[in-house]
Structures are given as structure tokens and as C-alpha cells.
Automatic annotation (TrEMBL):
<dbReference type="InterPro" id="IPR011006">
    <property type="entry name" value="CheY-like_superfamily"/>
</dbReference>
<dbReference type="Pfam" id="PF00072">
    <property type="entry name" value="Response_reg"/>
</dbReference>
<dbReference type="GO" id="GO:0000156">
    <property type="term" value="F:phosphorelay response regulator activity"/>
</dbReference>
<protein>
    <recommendedName>
        <fullName>Stage 0 sporulation protein A homolog</fullName>
    </recommendedName>
</protein>
<comment type="function">
    <text>May play the central regulatory role in sporulation. It may be an element of the effector pathway responsible for the activation of sporulation genes in response to nutritional stress. Spo0A may act in concert with spo0H (a sigma factor) to control the expression of some genes that are critical to the sporulation process.</text>
</comment>
<dbReference type="GO" id="GO:0003677">
    <property type="term" value="F:DNA binding"/>
</dbReference>
<feature type="domain" description="HTH LytTR-type">
    <location>
        <begin position="133"/>
        <end position="228"/>
    </location>
</feature>
<feature type="modified residue" description="4-aspartylphosphate">
    <location>
        <position position="56"/>
    </location>
</feature>
<dbReference type="Pfam" id="PF04397">
    <property type="entry name" value="LytTR"/>
</dbReference>
<dbReference type="InterPro" id="IPR046947">
    <property type="entry name" value="LytR-like"/>
</dbReference>
<keyword id="KW-0597">Phosphoprotein</keyword>
<feature type="domain" description="Response regulatory">
    <location>
        <begin position="3"/>
        <end position="119"/>
    </location>
</feature>
<keyword id="KW-0238">DNA-binding</keyword>
<dbReference type="InterPro" id="IPR007492">
    <property type="entry name" value="LytTR_DNA-bd_dom"/>
</dbReference>
<dbReference type="InterPro" id="IPR001789">
    <property type="entry name" value="Sig_transdc_resp-reg_receiver"/>
</dbReference>
Length: 236
């Protein structure tokens, strides 16, 4: 699901942006923030992140560029669209890898074209899981991911040939995954059903021979979703 964060200190502009978004995405979750500090505080617990940010540059406190830089450090795949009337910042913003730059006053057609392009881009990119390890950015096809494992503050992403370790939590990742493919089997495990060989009482056996724990809490969900997965696959 696409989620949008707006960081803009002008209330009229906030409303304008929200209205333009709602004309295209009626059911899209949108959160509005008046400062970079408020936005980063909201993101700090790791429970929420946004697919797309509309970011003013001249904000009270830290600037939109500083805010975007902090976001980019934690989420290398988020799309950032700057909205500002300060054209002299154009060259500075490229360090934060923005998707687009919109100048004020905002023209409806320009804004909605940028939003539509961003939606199409995210849809096309939807087959990849993006994350970073230190300064290296990775994009792993979902079909190559066997399972995610949580260990303390780190996540382990397991493929058939390699394991990647990075900081993160399972809950926000679970929200971004295709529910037809991935299922939670345990507080510390998310499994790609493409790789399930069999489901036992307390564990899942993968095609690789690995055993994944399955807790009593998640057992009914795993069995139900695996049946749904088999039916879905039979229609492909």
C-alpha cells in the first residue's frame, strides 16, 4: 500500500496538497507534519514509514533538506518530492536523491502529474525489496527472499545463496510485503510461501531443508494463508 507523508508548515498549502492527493488516491493514508522534527519523531520508533514524501524546504527548525537526508539514511527507497518557492536550493537537494522538484505556487496539473508518475514508478518497482547496509544499497527481488529473521535489533534476510544483515524491525516490513506471498509464522520470522515444503505442528519445513519455528499464536494464520496461497497459485 502506498503511504504519503507531507512536511509543510503552511496550513493552506497542506490542505491544497491533501486535496490534490485525494482526487487521485481516495483511500491512501496521508499524514501531515508542520516541521522536520515532528516528522522524524514520528518515524523514530521504526513502526511507520512512508512510500512517498512531499517535502517543503524552508521549514521551522531543521530544513527540509536535512529532514530528507535523515530519511534517506534509514530508507533508501522512499520517494521524495520537494515543494518550495526557493529555487536557489535546487542544486543542494540532489544529494538527497529526490524524485522530483515542484515550485510554488503549486499548479494542480504539475502536482498531479508528479504524483501519478510516482505511483507508476512505485508500482513498477514493487517487485523489489530495498534496504541498505552501511553505505551500500541493495534491491532484492521478492521471489528470491526465502524468509526474514529478527535477531535483537537486526534483521536477517535469507536468500538461497546469501544472508544479509541490517538494522530494522519486522512489523513495518510485514506491512510492505505482498500478503499473498509472505506469512508471519513467529514473532521473529516472516516466510515466503513460495519456499514452503510442508507445515508441521510447531515448524515450517522449507524446500532448502531449513526448519522455521511456528508459534501456537500464528499456526492458524499460517495454515489459512498457505491454503489461500495454493488457491491463488493455481489460478496463475
Amino acid at each position: 500500500m502506498i503511504t504519503i507523508g507531507i512536511c509543510e508548515d503552511s496550513v493552506p498549502v497542506q490542505s491544497q496538497i491533501e486535496n490534490y492527493i485525494c482526487e487521485i488516491l481516495n483511500e491512501c493514508p496521508v499524514e501531515v507534519f508542520s516541521s522536520g522534527e515532528d516528522l522524524l519523531s514520528f518515524l523514530s520508533d521504526g513502526k511507520q514509514r512512508f512510500s512517498l514524501y512531499f517535502m517543503d524546504i524552508a521549514l521551522p527548525g531543521i530544513s527540509g533538506i536535512e529532514t530528507a537526508s535523515a530519511i534517506r539514511g534509514k530508507d533508501p527507497c522512499a520517494l521524495i518530492i520537494y515543494i518550495t518557492d526557493y529555487r536557489e536550493y535546487v542544486y543542494q537537494i540532489f544529494e538527497t536523491l529526490p524524485y522530483r522538484f515542484i515550485t510554488k505556487p503549486i499548479e494542480k496539473e504539475v502536482f498531479q502529474k508528479a504524483l501519478t508518475d510516482a505511483i507508476n514508478y512505485m508500482t513498477d518497482r514493487g517487485e523489489l525489496f530495498c534496504f541498505h547496509v552501511d553505505r551500500d544499497q541493495y534491491q532484492i527481488p521478492f521471489q528470491e527472499i526465502m524468509y526474514f529473521e529478527s535477531r535483537l535489533r537486526k534483521l536477517m534476510l535469507h536468500t538461497a545463496g546469501e544472508t544479509y544483515s541490517f538494522y530494522g524491525k519486522l512489523n513495518p516490513i510485514e506491512k510492505d510485503l505482498n500478503p499473498l506471498l509472505f506469512v508471519r509464522s513467529h514473532a521473529s520470522y516472516l516466510v515466503n510461501m513460495e519456499y514452503i515444503r510442508s507445515i508441521r505442528d510447531t515448524e515450517i519445513l522449507l524446500q532448502s531443508g531449513e526448519h522455521i519455528p511456528m508459534s501456537r499464536k500464528y499456526r492458524p494464520l499460517v495454515r489459512q494463508k498457505h491454503l489461500e496461497y495454493i488457491k491463488w497459485r493455481s489460478l496463475q
